[in-house]
Amino acid sequence: MRLSPEQWPSHLNRLVPPLTLLIGSEPFLSLECQDHWRRACRAQNYEERKVWTVESRFAWTEVDLHWNSGSLFGSRCAVEIHLPSGKPGPEGTRQLEKLANSPQEDKRLLILLSELDYRTRQAPWLTQLQTKALWTETLPVPRNALPRWIAQRLGPCQASSEALEFLADCTEGNLLATAQEIAKLSLLYPTGPLTLEQVQSAVMVMSRHTLTDLTRALSQGNGAQI
């Protein structure tokens, strides 16, 4: 079943399925989805963690042995397989299909892919994973949708349309930079609503101070430093 990245956290918080697939075309949103999956696994007592990153000459037999063996201490394990190239190769294809068809009660599996080319998107192994897994894809946010994305992230600390457009222009679609600015604005103006002048002033402050500097100054009540 496919979910949007926005649906991802609430669904995983209810139940992490045996197989989860994440196609991370947008790096920042992909990291967020990974973090949500890990937190949900820990909350559901999958406390052990095993991570493989598939590179050339990867030993898929290690995955097979681990998947089909139980923990010595009876613990439950969150397993991650990272495929940066998106191309598992013949042996990897067979192993991924085997994993998809042999869920384990004491394990939860996340398969992480980066941005995929057209041929990979049509590959039978990927189609099978998408059929078996709970999955999502993180896509870049278009410029015309970025102000709305920022407004959703601001939550109760809302902003004027001019302020949203200004912030979208400043960060130029870089979602990590945008999220950092939103976090800083929430520290500076926790109650909102934000005006264009406040956002412009805050962006100038951010060019001189890191988030750590700003948090420390706020916690110490040091308005002069800000």
Automatic annotation (TrEMBL):
<dbReference type="InterPro" id="IPR027417">
    <property type="entry name" value="P-loop_NTPase"/>
</dbReference>
<dbReference type="GO" id="GO:0003677">
    <property type="term" value="F:DNA binding"/>
</dbReference>
<feature type="domain" description="DNA polymerase III delta N-terminal">
    <location>
        <begin position="21"/>
        <end position="137"/>
    </location>
</feature>
<keyword id="KW-0808">Transferase</keyword>
<keyword id="KW-0548">Nucleotidyltransferase</keyword>
<keyword id="KW-0235">DNA replication</keyword>
<protein>
    <submittedName>
        <fullName>DNA polymerase III, delta subunit</fullName>
    </submittedName>
</protein>
<keyword id="KW-0239">DNA-directed DNA polymerase</keyword>
<dbReference type="GO" id="GO:0006261">
    <property type="term" value="P:DNA-templated DNA replication"/>
</dbReference>
<dbReference type="Pfam" id="PF06144">
    <property type="entry name" value="DNA_pol3_delta"/>
</dbReference>
<dbReference type="InterPro" id="IPR005790">
    <property type="entry name" value="DNA_polIII_delta"/>
</dbReference>
<dbReference type="GO" id="GO:0003887">
    <property type="term" value="F:DNA-directed DNA polymerase activity"/>
</dbReference>
<dbReference type="InterPro" id="IPR010372">
    <property type="entry name" value="DNA_pol3_delta_N"/>
</dbReference>
<dbReference type="GO" id="GO:0009360">
    <property type="term" value="C:DNA polymerase III complex"/>
</dbReference>
